[in-house]
Amino acid sequence: MVAHEMGHNFNGVHDGTTGMILSPTVSVTNTWSTGSKATINTQIASQSSCLDACSSQTCNRVQNVLLSGITAQGFTLDWTHSTENLYTIKIREVGSDTFLQELTTINNHLVVTPVGFEICKKYDVFVYNECGSQGLSAPQRILFQGLTSQGCAEFASNKSVTWPGGTISMTDKSLNAGTWHWDFGNGQTSTLQNPSVTYTDPGFYNVTLTVNNGVHSMVKNELIKVLPHMPIPFETSSGGDFESNTNLFSSEAIEGTVNLWQSGTSNYVLATQGNAWKTILNGDILQVTGKCALYSPKFDFSQYASSTLHFDIGMETVYCNAPFAVQLQYSTDQGVTWTRLGSAPDFYNGGPGEFCEIASLKFFQINMGGHSIKTICIKVLTSVF
To answer: Would you say the pTM of this structure is higher than 0.85?
Structure first.
């Protein structure tokens, strides 16, 4: 309405078919005087509130939110009352997309006991004003951790992939722990704070750490992947197609926290007709810096005088070798040390933008040695920078 009436001040007329809608054509033939301009400028500067009718109202945030009184079952929330007098609360575990609880209230003091709330876990709390047709305000957000004084189990392994006979070291990262009980998923246990365990059989193993005589436990499902020995030749029917048996391969992050390797069918760039191992199956690689590796089974070459490895590689890059690179490496000591296989200076060593033809570049017919190599493990190392 305000804009409609202003249009009449600029010689606007009603549309020919109605007396309510302004014609899209406005003819201005006069120029405002200097005095009129000065008067209008003063009004706009000193009475800007008259324009509020033309703009949406702000739904203000809740103020002075305080979280206190954390127990094993929940916590207490307080905040300053707002004119809306209606609030929405949402609680979820950090890293989850699912909320444990969502509630609407007229109170500004609440004892919240979400179903599934636990000690030691970390939580996200969001507090909103409810503003009617305008919806929710921007949230006030609080991150906190459940009770830790009783002890909270946490741990890490030095690696997550090995082969039969491989040893894994565990590092305790618990809070307020005085006793430790480890279950490595293979029938072995330990009460040491930082133990090591040797896995003899292939498979994927859960690892559990319990602290302070059962007060709290942490379970990491399929943390350890023990890859099998496979016979030579490693034919497609035996899993050499990288498609039919994903338990023969595994991957992990080596530097950084992002493991790019995924197994499945891709319908994105470099689409596959069946299953494959690919760095991000159906999306772009994140802008991170790190290294991750895809590991093969263990192979015994002792009965062969020499061996040859054949494979193709496909990549989508900004430059011919960037912003990521790939190396093929092998190990003869259960993955303790690794050696790069083959040489391709343009691919390995070229800088961003330098000339190299990745489309025609393939590593093939690489001689992997004679009787001196008894058993080897292979990994494809991907670097992102």
So the answer is: no
Phi, psi of 194 (to 5 degrees): -130, 80
Q: Of 381, 384, 373, which Cα lies nearest the Cα of 328?
A: 381
Query: Please, which residues bridge with residue 292 across strands?
Result: 253, 382
Q: Taking 90 as the threshold, does the pLDDT of residue 231 lie above it?
A: no
* All domains of the chain in start order, with CATH: 2-54 (no CATH), 63-145 (2.60.40.10), 155-226 (2.60.40.10), 232-384 (2.60.120)
Query: Identity (one letter) of the amino acid at 320?
Result: C
Q: What is the dihedral of CA 381, 343, 339, 231, to 10 degrees?
A: 80
Q: How high is the pLDDT of residue 328? A: 80
Length of the chain: 385
Instruction: Name the residue type at position 264.
Output: G
H helix count then E strand count, the chain = 3, 25
- Residue 180 is which amino acid? W
Query: Could you please report the per-residue DSSP string of 4-47?
Result: HHHHHHTT--B-TT-SSSBPS---------HHHHHHHHHHHHH-
**Which amino acid is it at 161?**
V
